[in-house]
Structures are given as structure tokens and as C-alpha cells.
Design goal:
- The chain is of the alpha/beta class.
- It is built from 8 helices and 7 strands.
- The radius of gyration is 19 Å and the shape is globular.
Length: 250
Amino acid sequence: MLFIGRFSAFLFFHFAFPTQPGKNRYREKTVNTSAVNLKPFSLIVKPASADCNLRCSYCFYPEKCRHYPITAKHRRPEAVLENLIRGYLSTDQPVYTFGWQGGEPMLMGLDFFRRVTDFMCEIFDLWYYQDRRTVSVRYFDSLLQKRIDGSCNVCTLANNCCQYFAVEYNGDIYPCDFFVREDLKIGNIRDMSWENALTAPLYIDFGHQKSRCNPACMTCDCRELCMGDCLKNRFYGNSEALSTLSRSFC
């Protein structure tokens, strides 16, 4: 499924396609994952880092440029793009999800996204003839899915934040795009496998903070749907702090 949404300085591309054994010629096994039981994860990709020609008042990402002061212009190199896509498609996932964000990802130019989407043409054809009539309201579907089988496809509904990785323009890996910080950098895709990223103590410790809710949350009727809210809405460093959302509405 493909979602394209325009929100001021953000152009968000969400590509998700199911595994098609024998049909997806781009899913090359360049990494041996047979010995590792990988937990499914998705990617939030920052091809232009925090570069943007706008400064929206609500945007949290422009300040992230301070982590990459060597150059004023941040653009994902071709080699990093190739490594990112092939490495991710080499893992065993029920669904492969790329979220292209920024900054302003359109600063990368049309040719960049042509290269990115070339390998998705075959998948689009499969979707168009099999499932193009499906309409989804993601949050409603996510709430229903959790009620039915307990699984979470939106990180805020989970009791652990190990749900996806944010990948900066140069391949640096972070546990969340709200927490692109030097002290939370897990590694780089050029010299770290996804298996090692998933099992990195820094990533695991970050994820565990989600379940350490404020004691008031433990008796809340909505706890199973909220799980104490996103860490970005808590006072980070105090994992048991009541989130701003909870203080306003609960």
C-alpha cells in the first residue's frame, strides 16, 4: 500500500508491501539471516537530514542539524541508499515499510526518488490488480487490531519502543526520529547489520522505557491502548512522568 501525504515541510512516503516469495526480484539475500529470528521493524528514512527551506513552528527536527556540522548541505549518497534498501530487503519481514521524511525530502530532487521507486514498480502492479479497492484509516485499524489479536502496528500503542529505526542521510541509525541525539546513536548501516542494531543494548534499553509508566496509568481504563503515551510527550529521563496528553485529557 502507498500513502502520500503533504504536511507543510514534510512529504511523507509510506511504502509497505507483503513478502512475495519468488516474485520480488529485488529481495536479494545479501545477508545471511537464517540463524537469527529477527523481530519485524520498519524504517523512518531521512534522505536530506533536517535540511528544509521552511521553519514551521511545530517542527521538532531542524535542530538535529547540529549533529552533522561538518557540512551545511546534507544529501544521502548513492552508496548509502543502495546499502539501506538492499540491506533492509535482505531481512525477513512480513511487510517492508519505508517512511521517507525530513527535513524536506523533496530537496533530494526527482531523480533520487526515481531511483528509490524503480524497484517498487513491480510491487505496485501486483497491488493494483489484487487490492486497490481497500480503504484504510490507519489509527482506527490499529486500535481494532490490538483489540482483536493484541498486536501493534503503531508504536504508540505498544508497551515497548523497539518498533522501528530512524536512518539519517549518512546512514546513522537512531531508535526514533524524535530522539535523534548523539547519545542515542546506535551505529551506521555501513558497518552494522540490522541484527546487531536490533540487539544493541542502547536500543533495547530505550525500548524498555515505554512500559515504565506513571503509577496513575496502571489503573487507567485506556492503558492498553495508550501504554503511557509516547516518550516524546513525557519528561524524557524520567520514564514514569505523566505525559502531557495524559495530564490534559485523562
